[in-house]
Amino acid sequence: MAAGRNVMRAVKVFEFGGPEVLKLQADIPLPVPGENQVLIKVHACGINPVETYIRSGTYAKKPALPHTPGSDVAGVVEGVGEHVTTFKKGDRVFTLGTISGGYAEYTISSADTVFSLSDKLDFKQGAAIGIPYFTAYHALFQKGSAKAAETVLVHGASGGVGIAACQIARAYGLKVFGTAGTEEGIKLVLQNGAHEAFNHKKKDYLTQIKEAAGVHGIDVVIEMLANVNLAHDLQLLSSGGRVMIVGSRGPIEINPRDTMWKESSIRGISLFSASKVKKTIIMQYMYIIHLEETVCLFCNTAWIRCLASTHGKFWKAPLISSYTFLRPCRHTHSFNHFTVWGTLHKLSGVSCYLLRSFGLASETIFCNSINLSGAGLASLGFICPAAFSLHAFREKQCS
């Protein structure tokens, strides 16, 4: 608990409406964490479109009033509940699910939605991770089933989720197209992983996308404005293509027959509806930190960097080479061979499990545990269809 304080400043919404309903209050009781909760001193708070929908009363699920907005915050742990063992006072953290609201000096979050923040990221960047990056990953892989070498179109790619989707998709080995509405936006999209970017305000931009995609078409569309683009998206899809609806601001009329001959699908995305297990997998996949040893899965992380903006400026930082990212080997046409160094390490084991669960380790995973016993190798059988010590592998290669 904050020493000597029992009140804080926080923004409250007493009625739904425009920005004018946001009221700064100076006498809000300091929240007290429950047994499985974490009290965070807020250093930065991310602002996402969903917060504006909630504030205006147009979101499907309305909070009880008065309400403090804000889901994504980064800060320092001020206190923890009696059952919380993963965090302690003074830890740098970020969360994507505040309980008491992020537009405040202090907030509480469930411990399972709080994650350690690397010292190499500042608080502004930490506050920009939650909803944008988790949503992008959820849309691309958990719902969109995107695979390396497929083509993804990110509509609204210059926004928070759009930038994250471009970065992650590029790092994963997809061909990335993005759209934006300004030349500045186009440059930003290209700087953050897109192979090609298109101005959606130009009349012929859909023709340009079709030409760039070729006969095959677009495998996955990450759609931020479905009420405008969905009908066109269906025309761009490949056979078996998928549209992931991340955002929509109203109704649209489509022809269902456009989904039939290509056997394409339309899927709605809501990070709030994702299970705790899926969110944990996203975290383990994207952002494993404080490693005791380097886990390497072809970890060229050049395209993964968190952007936070304030007053028109951008802060960029790589999410560190020691984080785990799955990406295909650039030097082979096969996308199911990965190398995991130090496989018996607990975090490397997570990496193996994720590879296996994504169907990406269908043949072999190698580990560098030279003194690995036969029993140790056998224990990897549930995650590795074939496991070898690096020493044994070298002998095999030389024989």
UniProtKB/TrEMBL annotation:
It is found in: Cytoplasm. Gene3D superfamilies: Medium-chain alcohol dehydrogenases, catalytic domain (3.90.180.10), NAD(P)-binding Rossmann-like Domain (3.40.50.720). GO terms for cellular component: cytosol. Residues 17-332 form the Enoyl reductase (ER) domain. Its main location: cytoplasm. Keywords: Acetylation, Cytoplasm, NADP, RNA-binding. GO terms for molecular function: identical protein binding; mRNA 3'-UTR binding; NADPH binding; quinone reductase (NADPH) activity. One of its GO terms (biological process) is protein homotetramerization. Belongs to the zinc-containing alcohol dehydrogenase family. Quinone oxidoreductase subfamily. This is Crystallin zeta. It comes from Podarcis muralis.
